[in-house]
Amino acid sequence: MKVAIAGGTGFIGKHLTQYFLDKKTTVLLISRQKHKSEHPLIRNITWEELEKSIKPLEGVDAIVNLAGETINQRWTPKAKERILQSRLDSVERVRSIIERMENKPVLINASAVGIYGSSESASFTEDSDLNVNDFLSNVADKWEAAAELIPDIRVVLLRIGVVLAKDGGAFPKMSLPFKFGLGGRIGSGKQLLSWIHIRDLVRLIEFCIEKEDIEGPVNATAPQPVTNDEFGRQLAKFMNKPYGFPLPSFVLKLMFGEMSMLLLEGQRVIPDVAINQGFQFHFPVLEMALKDLLDPEIKAVK
User: Where is the DUF1731 domain (predicted)?
Assistant: First the structure.
């Protein structure tokens, strides 16, 4: 198999690249600037080079588009514009490339569970109505709509939840207060957290590439979401730390402004497509994921 990854130098992209390399899969990393790699299975190409010639993508089975400005920044008007436009621009570049390819690859286009809006009671599957009523849901909705306009190819819209990994994403920041014995619920603690272990995420991407009948939205989340309070209690238990230092909502809103909704709001998302298609999660419940992520630290504190 031969896979092209846009945004391959980011957190998820690095894990996905390594996963494919471990399986002896050729990886083409598409980015704005040229990066050097001595690995024989990696080829680095720029968007500018692909505008001139798509020859480097000959024989590619899939394009995975993860490119986009990080949402982990204060949402000023200019930042909001960059966050949205960077995603739309990446899809437009991918469309331009695919339209010139004779043998069309499948497109795995990243999206987010934020497209469902926020709820403390409703459950959302891929068939659920969307609740586009805030900045994040609007970005995800426009991102998906742009990808769906690419003609004559199979498009998978990967609605990614909170990705748990030791070396990046949200987990190191979420676990940091607990290391100092300062862990507690955030806000009410009732907001739902639809999460996925990084290894299940990269496996699910490969699964979607290989399963030719998978098309459209796919929820990239573990089967059992938890509330923020449940997450915190399990994390404190695994780290052998106290749990009782709540972080009030108003503090987060003062610190982060509108971006605080990432921590104060959530949704219960169920991966119906993955389950019905036979995908086997290695980390279906939070306890298994935390044990994997924290096992060396658990041994260290006991």
Answer: 247-293
Q: CB neighbours of 122 closer than 8 A, spacing ≥ 6?
A: 128, 267, 268
Angle of helix 77-99 versus helix 135-148 axis, rounded to 10: 10
Looking at the domain assignment, is residue 235 inside a domain?
yes
Query: Is 152 a domain residue?
Result: yes
Cα distance between residue 21 and residue 14, in whole Å: 11
For residue 37, give both structure tokens: 């790699």
**b/e string for 93-116 if b means 16 or more Cβ within 10 A?**
bbbebbeeeeeebbbbbbbbbbbb
pTM across the whole model: 0.94
How many whole angstroms separate alpha carbon 191 and alpha carbon 194? 10
Is residue 302 situated within a structural domain?
no
| Residue owning tokens 């004779």 | 102
Residue carrying the six token digits 């990696």: 42
How far apart CA 282 and CA 276 sit, in angstroms, is: 16
Taking only the tens place, the pLDDT of each residue in 94-120 is 999 999 999 999 999 999 999 999 999
Task: For 135-162, give one letter per residue: b (16+ CB within 10 A) or e.
Answer: bbbebbbbbbebbeebeebbbbbbbbbb
